[in-house]
Amino acid sequence: MDEQAKPSTTRLFLALWPDPALRHQLLQWRDAWGWPKGAAPVHADKLHLTLHFLGGLPSERLPELLEAVAVPFEPFQLALTHATLWHNGIAVLEPDLTPPALAALHARLSDALLALGLQPEARRYRPHVTMARRAGGATVPQDGAPVLWDVRGYALVESKNGVYTVLRSYG
């Protein structure tokens, strides 16, 4: 076997994926910020709410993963109401409160990942939609219409060469 050959990997994450109408509302929030020079606003087709970042996994595990992350799901509403700038220059839109159904979904997905021998992130889950990176010094919008997201499912998404592709939707 060639010593240079590396196993193929697929970069993945689990997310709440907005429909076009909701994406438009998220864009209105993103565009209400005052971005400093060098900020990197998130492109419209990449706006989402991450449930779990999985990183690069062996591509051969993809069929197993597609089935394993199909967990019980209860529809819920998520109200994104609060624009803020995190200490590391990440501009986000987040809820004031995490709906219990979102916390339950996150926990069920954590259990599914653990059952596959994967380690979910250890830090506390803070649901948010990233508006921009490298945004230190941005002007944070104080008011805006709440984004009321009627969550009917979640998605397994691949990130490849800067393009996000929904591999499967659940719910």
Characteristics:
35% strand; 21% helix; five-stranded antiparallel sheet; 171 residues; 3 helices; Cyclic Phosphodiesterase, Chain: A; alpha+beta; four-stranded antiparallel sheet
Task: Give a structural overview.
The chain is an alpha+beta fold and 171 residues long. The chain has one domain (9-170): Cyclic phosphodiesterase (Cyclic Phosphodiesterase, Chain: A). Helix content is 21%, strand content 35%. It has helices spanning 20-32, 62-68, 100-115; strands spanning 9-16, 40-41, 49-58, 76-85, 91-95, 129-133, 147-151, 154-160, 163-170. The strands form two sheets. The protein has a five-stranded antiparallel sheet, covered by helices on one side. Strands 3-1-8-9 form a four-stranded antiparallel sheet, covered by helices on one side. A hairpin with a 5-residue loop joins strand 4 (76-85) and strand 5. The model has no long low-confidence stretch (mean pLDDT 94).
Q: How do the strands line up in the largest sheet?
A: 2-6-5-4-7
Radius of gyration: 17 Å
Q: For the record, what CATH class applies? A: Alpha Beta
- Helical segment count: 3
Order of helices and strands: EHEEHEEHEEEE
- Unreliably modeled segments: none
Q: What summary fits the major beta sheet?
A: 5 strands, antiparallel
Q: What structural category do the secondary elements indicate?
A: alpha+beta
Strand content range = 35-45%
Question: At the third CATH level, what is the topology name?
Answer: Cyclic Phosphodiesterase, Chain: A
Span between termini: 42 Å
Number of domains: 1
What do we call the CATH homologous superfamily?
Answer: Cyclic phosphodiesterase
